[in-house]
Amino acid sequence: MKPWYIKDTGFTNVVSEKDMSTFRRVCPDRRYRKGDLIFHAGDSATDLHVIAQGQVKLVTPTAAGSERILAICGPNDFIGEAFLSDDAQYRVDAVALTEVMSCPISRDQFMKMSLEAPSFALTFAEILASHLFYCREQLSNSYAPVKVRVIKALLEQAERFGEVLDEDWVKLSTELKHEELASMITATRVSVSMAIAELRDEGVLEGTRGEYRLNIEALTDQAEFYA
Question: Which of 39, 82, 167, 198 satisfies CB 3.0 to 4.6 Å to 88 for a cystine?
Answer without folding.
Answer: 82
